[in-house]
From TrEMBL:
Family (UniProt): Belongs to the adenylate kinase family. UMP-CMP kinase subfamily.
Annotated InterPro entries: Adenylat/UMP-CMP_kin, Adenylat_kinase_CS, P-loop_NTPase, UMP_CMP_kinase
Subunit structure: Monomer.
Name the UniProt record assigns to this protein: UMP-CMP kinase
Cleavable signal peptide: none
EC number: 2.7.4.14
Annotated ATP binding sites: 13-18, 130, 173
Location(s) in or outside the cell: Cytoplasm; Nucleus
GO molecular-function term, one example from the UniProt record: ATP binding
């Protein structure tokens, strides 16, 4: 079975999780946040990757693709028959992209990349006020996450842009305005 996939990318705090939750509710797409899957794996008793994942999350660096891709693939297999998957926060660097392509080519139909663009100062302020107790929502980790985003993730968005796959939605606006533009891409 070939699964429809929409990648959702943008800086930390740009609203990826918020928008994906709304799409999931309205369009029978399943939201798979790579970060959430890694946080769950970090907490899983007996996981051999817990300490490694924690180190990467705190430092804003990127977990090797073998781990993240396996978590995503397992979640997709477990979901059953749905319209597609919103893969939130992945692929984040060249390693992620190459590993995903090696493992998933032929198993997925990549529809487009939803790029939520937002100025970094707004994103940082949103993360600092998110109130979810994330270990990486502090000034120090956020600085590192932004460096990683600019140096490794933005080039991946540029890569997709070159093949015409990117749909940019400006997400510094109120959620309902952002979502109204996103809906047009799924309708
Ligand atoms: N358009 C918006 N306007 C104002 N606040 C927003 C908007 N979108 C999201 N937020 C808020 O900003 C915070 C970050 O949003 P969210 O968790 O969706 O971002 P994210 O892109 O998934 O971040 P991360 O990459 O860190 O996981 C949350 O507290 C959310 O409620
Ligand atoms: O594909 C991924 C996704 C996430 N990470 C790590 O998790 C944190 C948090 O990710 P969010 O998308 O903000 O929830 C991120 O900074 C990375 O350390 C990853 O390695 N690979
Ligand atoms: Mg998120």
């Amino acid at each position: 079975m070939v699964h429809n996939v929409v990648f959702v990318l943008g800086p930390p705090g740009s609203g990826k999780g918020t928008i994906c939750a709304k799409i999931q509710e309205d369009f029978n797409y399943i939201h798979l946040s790579a970060g959430d899957l890694l946080r769950a794996e970090r907490q899983r008793e007996g996981s051999e990757f817990g300490a490694l994942i924690e180190g990467h999350i705190t430092n804003g660096t990127i977990v090797p693709v073998e781990i993240t891709c396996k978590l995503l693939e397992n979640a997709m297999k477990a979901a059953g028959d749905v319209r597609g998957f919103l893969v939130d926060g992945f692929p984040r660097n060249q390693n992620n992209l190459e590993g995903w392509n090696a493992e998933m080519t032929g198993k997925v139909d990549e529809k487009f990349v939803l790029y939520l663009s937002c100025p970094v100062d707004i994103c940082i302020s949103r993360c600092l006020n998110r109130g979810q107790g994330r270990t990486d929502d502090n000034e120090e980790s956020l600085k590192k996450r932004v460096v990683t985003y600019n140096s490794q993730t933005f080039p991946i968005i540029e890569h997709f842009e070159k093949s015409g796959q990117v749909r940019e939605v400006k997400s510094e606006r109120p959620v309902e305005e952002v979502y109204a533009d996103v809906v047009k891409l799924f309708s």
